[in-house]
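To fix ideas, we quote verbatim one protein's residues and C-alpha cells.
>
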Amino acid sequence: MKSMLAICTRGEDQIELRRIPIPKPGPRTVLIRVMAAAQNPSDWKTVMNHNVPDCVVGCEFAGVVVELGENVETDIHLMDRVASIIHGSTSANGAFAEYLVAHSHMLIHIPDSLSFEQGAQVPLGCFTACQTLYQSQFLPFPTQEFNRSSDILVWGGSSMVGHYTIQFAKLGGMRVIATASPLHFQNLKDLGVDKVFDYRNPKAGQKIHAYTDGKLTCAVDCISERTTPYQVSEALSNDGGVVSAVNPYISRKKDVKVISSLAYWLMGQPFNFPEQYTPSVEHVEFASKASRFISQMLDANQLVLAPIKVMPHGLASVPDGFDYMKAGKVSKEKIIYRISDTPGI
C-alpha cells in the first residue's frame, strides 16, 4: 500500500509527523497532491479541543489534481492547479500531508502566474468573505454592482477574512468602513477602505455610528469575540441591521440580526465538530458559485493577496508554526508550509 507523510494527532493536544496510507477519492471528490498548505487558528484549536487521535491536521491547501473520482465537476481535469479547504483535524484527511481528497465543487483554479504558496492562503478567507457578503447580507456577487450609496463596516479589517471582504465589497462599489490597529491603517487604505477606526478605542462603535449618520445597517464582524459584539452593534443604526459574524452570538441591540458563517458548511458533508451539521443543497450550490467567482477574480488579477511566511522545513515545522501562532506573533500574514521542504520527501 502506498504511503505518505502527514501531520497527525496523537490525542491529548499532541501531533506528530508520520507515514499513513494515501487516501482514495470517492464520488464528487478528487485526489490532490498537496504542494503547499496554509495554517489557521482553527488548526491548533481543533487539535487541542477535539482531542481525537489519528486525524490529519490542516484545512487549507494548494496543489495538483492527480486522480478523479466519479461525477466530478466538468471543469476539473487531471493536473489542474487548484486550491481549496477541507475539514482537517477531524478525520484521516487533512491539508498537512502529501496528498488529500477534496470536494470537486469547491476547487478554486490557480492561474500559472500564482505560486502554490501564494495560492494556499486564498481559499478560507475568500470563501468566508463570500459567505459574509453574499449569503448573510444577501448582496449580489460583484458581477452585479451594489448600490453605490451603501455602507458596510468590516470589524477586524486586517484579519484574513477582513482582507478579502474589503476587496469584494469595493469591487461591488460599496463604501467600506473598517477597524484595525493604527499599524495597519495604511494597508487597509491601500485596499480601498474609505475610513479606518482604531478598534482599541472604547468609543469606536459610537464614532462609526456618527460617521455614518446613524444609518449603517450592514456589518461584518471578523473577530466575533470579547467586546466586538457590543462595539459592532453600537455602530449600527438604531433601527437595527444585519451582522455577518465568523462566530455565532446574540446582539444586545434590538432589531440587530446576527448571522454566523462557517466555511465547512460549504463542503456538503455532515460533521459534529465544532458543531453538529447536516448538509444542505443550498450551501453546496453556493460553494460552487463562490469557487467559480474566486477563480475568475484570481485569473483577472483583481485581488491583492495577503503576505505569507513560509516555514523552513515543510511539515516538520508545524509544531513551530503552532507555537508562533499561539504566542500571538502572527499579524496580517499567513503561515505556509511548502510540502517538498519536508525532510524525507
Observations:
- Residues 215 and 237 are 5 Å apart (CA to CA).
- The chain has nine helices and 15 strands.
- The chain has two domains: 3-124+265-341, 137-260.
- The domain at 137-260 is CATH 3.40.50.720 (Rossmann fold).
